[in-house]
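FAQ

Q: What does a record look like?
A: Structure on top, sequence underneath. For example:
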């Protein structure tokens, strides 16, 4: 009998870890994601397959039994605390995850065997190159600003930074490393490169509510906007403790030298 460590779920989570550059909290439970009350009135916390706190991301790997009746897993002759058999409860709890996780500000990505290299029964062939490419697309954000922000967040984690809840709710990303603090504003590809860069600088200026010299500010832009971001002279940016970071088209992060 196989174990969770060699399951398709563990394989998928492992590939996601490689893409994201962060270890997952597997079988994680949130205090606010609860099952139905049992006979004693208690509600257990539901698990999610994998949670990446640095990316504020949950990935659920849903095998075929999540989408079609499967007597072996559904146990139709046994009722759960929800008053329905396990298959119906699974569907209800999946729907609860789908609603509650985004409602709490966490991105949810659902991966199914059909998204990867799998046979007709939903068993993965474990073709890593093909599956890595597929998962990279599945995990990609809808907008280029999201791509830029995700790439920079991954880079920060690799550099020893820890993302934290922003002091200002409008801040794109805030991170700490020891006594250092970094407050970030990100922009994606845009036709109005100069205007968007000016807006980003203004947004960073409004975040400068403290005088701690260990706090710095980051303007994170795609390669196409780097020239516009550099229009503010380097000595001015140095006085304001603003650093410009470039995210290339292949999502690598660079800190340009002026």
């Amino acid at each position: 009998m196989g174990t969770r460590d060699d399951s398709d779920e563990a394989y998928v989570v492992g590939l996601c870890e490689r893409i994201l550059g962060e270890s997952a909290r597997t079988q994680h439970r949130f205090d606010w994601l609860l099952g139905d009350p049992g006979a004693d009135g208690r509600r257990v916390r539901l698990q999610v397959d994998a949670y990446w706190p640095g990316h504020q991301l949950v990935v659920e790997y849903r095998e075929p039994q999540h989408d079609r009746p499967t007597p072996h897993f559904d146990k139709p002759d046994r009722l759960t605390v929800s008053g329905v058999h396990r298959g119906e409860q699974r569907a209800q709890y999946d729907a609860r995850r789908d609603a509650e996780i985004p409602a709490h500000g966490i991105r949810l990505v659902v991966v199914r065997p059909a998204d990867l290299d799998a046979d007709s029964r939903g068993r993965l062939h474990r073709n890593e190159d093909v599956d890595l490419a597929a998962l990279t697309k599945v995990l990609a954000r809808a907008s280029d600003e999201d791509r830029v922000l995700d790439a920079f967040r991954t880079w920060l984690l690799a550099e020893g930074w820890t993302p934290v809840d922003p002091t200002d709710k409008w801040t794109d990303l805030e991170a700490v490393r020891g006594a250092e603090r970094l407050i970030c504003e990100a922009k994606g590809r845009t036709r109005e490169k100069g205007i968007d860069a000016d807006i980003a600088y203004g947004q960073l200026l409004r975040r400068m509510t403290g005088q701690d010299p260990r706090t710095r500010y980051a303007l994170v832009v795609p390669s196409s906007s780097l020239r516009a971001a550099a229009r503010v002279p380097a000595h001015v940016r140095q006085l304001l403790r603003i650093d410009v970071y470039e995210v290339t088209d292949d999502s690598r992060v660079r800190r340009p030298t002026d």
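Q: Is there anything notable about this one?
A: Residues 150 and 162 are 14 Å apart (CA to CA).
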